[in-house]
């Protein structure tokens, strides 16, 4: 794919080539001395998201103004943290499209579209998002949603090479995470555990794209030779009676990575099992290594070094793919080299990053699946949470007490800043589950999900929440919090100016005092925010940037603001005074009405809707939708044209799949009956 160049360029290709050409492992490490650039997804290899820049501080943060904004021309989720190198910014939009900008002016330099096919959208659980790029030796690397890893010339935007990271294209693998580059190797994982895949992480040569190594996270068919001793060890923790390898096993590495150059260890977080329900995946139980684990690998060879499993025998979609931070902490009178994680399951972990030894874990939200962790580093579980027969309200739910939204650690305050949340969900074993089978009422089975659960067969008792949590990792306690109106708020940035920055689901960008949580500055932006901000310096001036665009698995169905603008990048500076763009407001204000239907078809339509539509479009009429429309708020013409959307594929280019191979015209009529009938039931009487 050739890049689309800008009409006018304020930075020359030679300047860009010189700047990015100088980036290697040593340059990323050297940036730690001043943090003028933002060279890695989490700023540094330790992924702290703590910047030493302090020109913007608690005294002048209230004077921040808009320097520039830039439209990403995307209407799905934006999760990218921009990379900034000597005044050049690289940021991704939905569908893995890369934008190169003049970081000071916001003028585009080039746009690279990896041309992900629209119908590939159905192969992902959680929106067609991308968390960012990596830069190294004159190239920009992006993992595209359709599983290809692209190397792009940083100056021209032209493709250098492209490699297919997916080992089996019959399976629904995707990439949403940002690559990391270490010692001439670009490292990337993948997602797809909802769809029955086997997780792995791969390193490629930065110059050629040649595969250097691959490490699987779960064992394959035990009748075949194991790839390594780690897989042989892991197989002992699975029950082979259910042929777990046929369901893939899961364990995808779809986000978290961190690197310690002194120890030469790469730390990865692994995902959930496939299917989610352990009773169906591994009926006799077992820890099911290496699901829901932190694993240390040698980044040069991919060899296993050690692991710690946060959630043994995961059955709740409690991934450990959430942000990992490396730090040195004073614990018990000695300095410990640790890693910290606050994964989905609601506990905050401090682990020795040299050996993998468990140090501590405490709940940072309410938890109903487990009460505490023992000295052996294993959870003390509530037996009801694993019931085969009764529904159980898991708290946290599969949405996580903390999902992919990055947290940050400030060594000056000693606090970690966590986007904490709760989204109620009741799980019950699906009695009719069959591997890769499309079944009415089985959640999203029509697009290939393999969960083994039904959801909310009884109403949850919990209520949704979202807050910014300042957490002391040594004392394992909350220090302060800022409450929000909704879950699914953005990632955090903290600085030596004693500040914490965060975007919110209701469309604000906020700065807090990092010590006490006092709100110091806020500005409304054009949609809800899920990404994390960054900060950088150019020619002595400090800037703060946030990429905005509502979406993600929760954001597909729900939102907390009527501002629904396209994805956009905002950059702020003290004293800047550019005009904020006008927000686009939602036009979804009235329930659909007037579409004829047979009431006797509503029940069948409900079953079809749950197995094909629910996790994208939500419950009809309950709200007016997130990044994807709630069909209860459709216009009548859309519903009357339902066959064209569902069977003829007129929305494929925008990510709406065709169901022609799974559904019939009768099924579509049933869907229309359910949607219109539900909307009618919600109309004022």
From TrEMBL:
InterPro entries: Cyt_c-like_dom (IPR009056), Cyt_c-like_dom_sf (IPR036909), PQQ_b-propeller_rpt (IPR018391), PQQ_MeOH/EtOH_DH (IPR017512), PQQ_rpt_dom (IPR002372), Quinoprotein_ADH-like_sf (IPR011047), Quinoprotein_DH_CS (IPR001479). Keywords: Calcium, Disulfide bond, Heme, Iron, Metal-binding, Oxidoreductase, PQQ, Signal. SUPFAM superfamilies: Cytochrome c, Quinoprotein alcohol dehydrogenase-like. It holds the Pfam family PQQ. Residues 600-679 form the Cytochrome c domain. One of its GO terms (molecular function) is calcium ion binding. Belongs to the bacterial PQQ dehydrogenase family. This is Cytochrome c domain-containing protein. The lineage of its organism: Eukaryota, Sar, Alveolata, Dinophyceae, Suessiales.
